[in-house]
Amino acid sequence: MSGETYVIVGGGLAGAKAAETLRGEGFDGRVVLIGAEPDRPYERPPLSKDYLRGEAERETAYVHPAAYYEEHDIELRTETAAEAIDLNTRELALAGGARLPFHRLLLATGAEPRRLPGAEGAHYLRDFRDSDALRGVLEQGGRLAVIGGGWIGCEVAASARQKGLEVTLIEQAAAPLEAVLGHELGEIYAAIHRDHGVELLTGASVEAIDGGQVTLAGGRVVPCDHVAVGIGVVPRTELAEAAGLQLDNGIVADNRLRTSADGVFAAGDVVNAWHPLFNARLRVEHWHNALEQGPAAARSMLDTGEPYDRIPYFFSDQYDVGMEYAGHATEWDEVVFRGDVGGREFIAFWLKDGRLLAGMNVNVWDVTDDIQALIRSGAPVDPARLRDPDVELASLA
User: Fold this and answer.
1) pLDDT tens digits for range 346-373
2) Contact predicate 252/259, CB 8 Å
3) pTM of the predicted model, to two decimals?
4) 306 found inside a domain
């Protein structure tokens, strides 16, 4: 592979870890990492948490030190947009007219916030620039309306309350996080936010945003000084679509992260890849997925990869409540609780046909490996033993 050029489009966590892995696995050809942002690759979780609140410096979010890329002979091109992929000539067209030849290509283009029509002037959160702007709002104080009760909306609401703002959280569903966690867990998070002084409006649809107010369906008016919108993201598939790659809720890939085009791979938020454990395609929009899929894609580029079967994992910190979630549950028969739900120190388990699909530990630590082992085993689980804190989780797998 000496003398070959491997190009990575997407200067986020997945792309940076892929470049790192190529060098770590001994690839001695040319590695080019292209990012549209002015910053070198960084991690995004701090943008809604400690960085947003001014408790962490910018430097702590970067994936690698500034000198890393030159030291490892990785051509990092920031503020560079990729405009087209020519699969016939194996070239990437860049903004400004330059063309970059490649032998293998990794698309790690990520996702972008879903926009709310009529929400001009509202704040979204995806990159440093967004977080810096919202950080300025938190420093000003006043009233913040947050539209969307998913993970980003909830974390922004929590950070704003911790900074002393008056916060109204507006969610279409009956509870925040209901789409991911279900109603029971959603109500727990609803109580957490209300206990911290958030005005939570559920079953609420936004009709208009006009200066200092948000108008809801039915006529209710929410006064505010600023608006933040967190209603999900959409994968950035424009390059792949124009090149004729197969798409379906992202770039379709197999279990080795190979797309429908020979020599083209995908990783991170943008890829909808076949997962052998769940026997389905999954597109996962979380930090851990980018952390793991970037290296997995790099190994596949080197023809040394194995089927990617990592169990999805994510975490969230809101106020004094930390959680970790492992697994994948879209429908289930029951949710089983172990521990003190009222005291917010518990584990929740999602079961389908007697088997564990997912588990979430809230202010309980060092159990994620056991939860993942139980999911991977596919073994039937006795709900009574799951509930019993005296039964070691490791003994159930």
Assistant:
1) 999 999 999 999 999 999 999 999 999 9
2) yes
3) 0.96
4) no
